[in-house]
Amino acid sequence: MRETKANTLENQQMRSNIKRRYSTIRPRLGSVGLVAFCISGCAFAQNKAIDFQKGMPFSEGYVAGNTLYVAGQQGPDSQGRVTGTDITLQTTNTIAAIERVVKKAGFQMTDITSVTVYVTDLNDVPKMNEVYKKLMPDPKPARATVQVAGLIGGAKIEISAIAAKR
Length: 166
What we know:
Elements: H1 2-45, E1 48-50, E2 61-64, E3 67-73, H2 87-104, E4 112-119, H3 125-135, E5 142-147, E6 157-164
Parallel strand pairs: 4-5
Antiparallel strand pairs: 1-2, 2-3, 3-6, 4-6
């Protein structure tokens, strides 16, 4: 019986030590779990497609967390054509198309952090830059300009953009 009482006393002391050690960890784990849940919930809750039409292969934009990805935009004229229009008009209309997606997503043009410009003729870059500098707000986003063999619909320019809320 002495042995049993000693074992019982020893077990009670071990349990008490374990409780003391883990009582400081348990609240921290709960807090960490709650914070992780809230952060992941906020990020997932904000994901949404902008101007997606069923049957189309892409969305005009996509919001993931605090970031907006704007699909390549072109600048057709009022009849929806890009052929027969010059680079100045196409650039103006392309930036206007980007602005529509940006605003529809709840962002501002000043949130744009990166732009990729696709042109079919490098000789059009100086005229494109004139329009771009007037219409894109300061500070200008990071930018890459790439010459491509061709664009859908015969466009001379297409621009994609990334925006991030601060």
